[in-house]
Request: fold
Amino acid sequence: MDSAETNELTRWPSVERESIEKIKQWLTTQQHLPQLAAHEIALFLHANYGNEEATRRTIENYYTLRTSHRECFADRDVFSDPIQTALRIMMFTTLPGATKEGYKMVYTRLLISDASEFNHPQILKLMTMCLDLWVRLEGSANGHIMLTDMQGMHLGHMTKLNMGAAKKHMFYVQEALPIRLKQIHFINVVPFMNRLMFLMRPFMRKDVQEMINMHVELGTLRDAIPVESLPNEYGGTAGTFQDLHASFKDKLYANSDWFRSMESRNLVDEAKRLPKPKRYLFGLYG
Reply:
C-alpha cells in the first residue's frame, strides 16, 4: 500500500484493516464490479459499522444502481443548463459544525415556489449529485442528518412528482449511499404532509420512517440541531441562505472533474455478473 493510500486511510481509524482485505478479496470474485481502492472500501465499511456482509450488499447496490439508473448518474455536468436550472430552483448545502454526537448535517429548501418550473427528476438528479459530494467530503462522520425545509412548497408541487424517480432515489439513499443516516427533519411542515407521506412511505424502510421528525415551528428543531449550525434566518450563525447556497455551489464547481470521472468508472459490467442466488436481499446494517 503506497503512502498516498495510507494517508487516505487515516480518515477511517475505526475500520479494521483485516476487513478491508476481506472485502478486497471478495471483489476479486465479483468480476462485474469495479475493483476498489482500500480507502474506498473503508468508506463502505464505516457506513456499515464494520459489518462485512452489509458492506458487500451496499457496494453491490451502489454500483448496480449507478449503472442501471443512467438518467440520474450520467451527464452530470454541473455547468449544464439542466443542472444550473435545478440549482436556481433548489438549494442544497452542508451545515457547519456537528451535533454533540458528531453527526454532520445537510439542508435543502426550494428557492422558487412556482411549481411550473419544478422538474422533479432533474431536481432529484441534482440532489443525488449533492449527496455524493457530501459523502466525499464528510463520509467519515459518526452519523448523518438530513433537513428538508418545506417553506414554499404547495399542492402544485405534488402534481409534478415523478414516483418512479422518487422510488429509485429513495432506494439509493437507503440501500446504496454509504452514509450513517441517523435523523431526517422536515421543517415548516405543510398541511398536506400526510398526503405526501402516504405516497412516499411505501418506498421507505420502517427504521427510516422512525428517523423522521416533523417541525411545524422552529423551536423543536433547535432542540435537535445546534443553533450555531442553523442559517441566520432561523436564528443561527451558519450564514444566510444565499451565502450557504453559494458556498455549496462553489464546492460543486470545484469537483466538476470528479463528477465526470465518476460517470465512467463506477459501472457494473452485467455480462460478467454471476447468476444471483435464489433469494437476493438488500439493506444496510446499523
